[in-house]
Amino acid sequence: MRRALSLRARLLFGALLWTAGLFILTAFLHSHVLSAHPALPRLFNRVFLSHTSLLGVVALVCMAAGLVQVRRGLVSFSDLRARLTAVRDGREPRLDGRYPGEVQPLVDELNALLADRDARVTRALAKAGDLAHGLKTPLAILAQEAERTGGRDGDVADTIGQQVERMRRQIDYHLAHARAAASTTDPAARCHVRVSVDGLVRTLLRLHDSRRLTIDVDVPADHEVRARREDLDEMLGNLLDNACKWAKARVVVASLVDGGGVAITIDDDGPGIEPSMREAVLGRGVRADEAAPGSGLGLAIVRDLAELYGGSVALDRSPAGGARATLRLPKGIVDSR
After folding, report:
1. Residue 210, CA distances (Å) to 24, 76, 206, 283 in order
2. Which helix (H) or strand (E) is 313 found in, with range?
3. Phi (first) and psi of residue 264, to 5 degrees
4. Domain 188-337: homologous superfamily in CATH
5. Residue 57 CB: number of other CB atoms within 10 A?
6. What's the confidence (pLDDT) of residue 229?
7. Which of 156, 87, 144, 82 is nearest to 118 (CA)?
8. Spatial CB neighbours of 323, under 8 Å, sequence gap ≥ 6
9. Which of these, 189, 265, 182, lies nearest to 228 by C-alpha position?
10. Helix/strand/coil percent split, the chain, to 5
């Protein structure tokens, strides 16, 4: 596919063609005027020779003014590109600013498109939320019935309970995915890592109280990421829950600023994950230990949510001997207005 000429090249080429045409037209008129008035050449010569410096300055000023006008016209496109990048990154909800008459209709159409997309996403999320709430009540009833029949037919009850839990996880997975897809364009979507970590640590310590786990937190209070609080809780909750399940006695949560993002590491002193399995367990439905309970969606949720926010998650060996999960997310955007 042939690459189209840039706008600068087209403007330059058009200006050259316009100048060439104007030069030819001027020469044509000049020759006709001189043929009709033979005395004019001496008059022109006196005028041009007596005002050479002034005419040179005027010519240079006209050329400079023309270049400035062309440059100002092109700057609007650079500004539009920067604002589009801000919209894509979620720093701005729409395209603001004043543009030339030829560009403004395009900007208005883009803003209308963004507003229509936001309205569609809002409606889709509302429908997904209604569907999820509509399914959760029947699932809760099925779980209760499975518990009641457990004494009469334990195998059937266990099977029903496992399938109900699997359906719950699927609902949570798709709801979190839809919510984060909408959140990535929200410039206000940012939260403090320490607040989320502290809340999760308190909950997990209560859940694993009988094991007397220690969870150390080394997260500065000012570390902020571009994500909604509920999505960050979903990601960190899954990673911390896995660490607590496999840890022998200690889990460590830390964070540091890494370029344009924040890297959150979660270490445990458990058995760790085999190198050949580290990439595989991030896929949907895959677990490092098939004997362990769960649907295998936890790490897949973390991976998908992180990628929607422009981040990533990786598994490695921890200095404590177990597994290390590293979650990277973009830094929270500070509003400079």
Report:
1. 95, 64, 9, 31
2. strand 312-317
3. -110, 120
4. Histidine kinase-like ATPase, C-terminal domain (3.30.565.10)
5. 11
6. 87
7. 87
8. 242, 243, 246, 267, 268, 270, 272, 273, 315, 316, 317
9. 189
10. 60, 10, 25
- Paired tokens of 173: 């997975």
Tens of each residue's pLDDT in the chain, 337 residues: 455 556 667 677 777 787 888 888 877 777 777 677 676 666 666 666 666 777 677 878 887 887 777 777 677 777 888 888 877 766 777 888 777 777 788 888 888 888 887 777 777 767 766 676 677 777 777 777 777 766 566 677 777 777 777 777 777 766 766 666 655 555 557 889 999 999 999 999 998 888 889 999 999 999 999 888 888 998 999 899 989 989 999 999 999 998 889 999 999 999 888 887 877 777 654 444 433 444 345 788 888 888 888 899 999 999 988 999 999 999 876 443 3
* CA–CA separation, 92 and 335 (whole Å): 10
Gap between the Cα atoms of 176 and 302, Å rounded: 10
CA distance 331 to 78: 25
AA identity, residue 332: G
Instruction: Please list, in sequence order, all residues whose beta carbon lies within 8 angstroms of the beta carbon of residue 66, skipping any fewer than 6 positions away.
Output: 15
Handedness of CA 313, 314, 318, 319 (dihedral sign): negative
Residue 43, token pair as written in the block: 């008059």
Q: Domain coordinates of the chain in residue numbers?
A: 119-183, 188-337
The torsion of the CA quartet 131, 137, 139, 144, rounded to 10 degrees, works out to: 180
User: Model pTM greater than 0.70?
Assistant: no
Q: Residue 243 and residue 129: Cα distance in Å, rounded?
A: 30
Sign of the dihedral defined by the CA atoms of residues 179, 183, 185, 186, in that order: positive
Q: Which residues of 219-281 form beta strands (DSSP E)?
A: 224-225, 250-258, 261-268
DSSP conformation class of 14: H
**Strand 250-258 to strand 214-218: parallel, antiparallel, or no bridges (unpaired)?**
parallel
| Residue 202 host element (H or E) | helix 193-207
d(CA 45, CA 50): 8
How far apart are the C-alpha atoms of 169 and 171, rounded to whole Å?
Answer: 5
Question: Structure tokens of 65?
Answer: 């003014």
